[in-house]
Amino acid sequence: MNAVARIVGGLLVTFASLGGANAAGPAASAPPSKAGTHTVLIENLRFVPETLEIRRGDTVVWENRDLVPHTATAEGRFDSGNIAPKASWRHRFDAAGTLAVVCRYHPTMKAQVVVR
Predict the structure, then answer these.
(1) pLDDT number for residue 2
(2) Residues 15-58: tens digit of each pLDDT
(3) What is the 3-class SS of 26-92, one letter each residue?
(4) Which end of the chain is more exposed for a tag (fewer CB within 10 A), N or C?
(5) Residue 69 and residue 84: Cα distance in Å, rounded?
(6) What are the tens digits of pLDDT across the range 60-80?
(7) Sheet bearing 37-43, strands edge to edge
(8) Contact 59, 93 (CB under 8 A)
């Protein structure tokens, strides 16, 4: 092996050990998952879906397709206030847990958001 080949070979070994193109390590790890956006429809006096499973950092949009106003309320956590017909409201979830959601105007309208 000539001197140039030995130098190039040594450089390739050094490059790989430092996390080069095909090396395993931090450079090869998967990128963090991107936060998502989910929609809950409000129609026929129901939340659809009634149970929604999401990840921390995700946002949920409540879209009112009924002819009357509604709320999306999780006691002590969030309250959308009035969501008028054809309007929407969004909330980002940063903490894990299961939240019971209700419409303050129509207490039989119930849903849950499960945050992982």
Answers:
(1) 56
(2) 344 444 444 444 455 556 788 999 999 999 999 999 999 999 99
(3) HHHCCCCCCCCEEEEEEECCEEECCEEEECCCCEEEEEECCCCCECCEECCCEECCCECCCCEEEEE
(4) N
(5) 4
(6) 999 999 999 999 999 999 999
(7) 46-48, 37-43, 59-64, 88-92
(8) yes
